[in-house]
Amino acid sequence: MRDGEEAAMNRDRAERLILYLEDAEAALQRALRAASGFAKEERLKFSESLYEAIAALNSDVWKPIYDAYPDLAPEYEDLEPPTISSELSWNEVRLEHPLTEKDVDDILFPLLKSHWQKVALVLVKARDSCNLEGLSISYEVLAARLRDLADRNEIEGIGDLRIWRFSEVRLKD
Question: Count of domains in the chain?
Fold first, then answer.
């Protein structure tokens, strides 16, 4: 250390450390996206470890910096926390005659891919298909069916499928 430099974290060091930590978090997020393409068993193993690393970074590593320099902390007030889009479950759904469960599956399955897609995107596409076919099926009913399919392991889902913008679905591996 040069004369006059202290071992304690000064503002300049805190700012530099934040840049490194932001890079580290971005790298972990990229690794998480890369792991989403793995086979299910490997994906679950790696994803869990990566989520833990991201959580530790966000809960433990940033805190001392933001405690020392609160003005460096990001402003989260403008961020809307994820909220549940629908609580409707498939066993509560009563389809209008003559619609059947198979009819709903016939709308959803062609839209599902081998890669992850946001639930919200699949629902919008499904409603578009419903409109083209003159069917009246709500987003909530379609989402309830996706959740049921994932719960029965007929498709794969990640995240809380009740929170449409923050969860994803795909065809099984």
Answer: 2
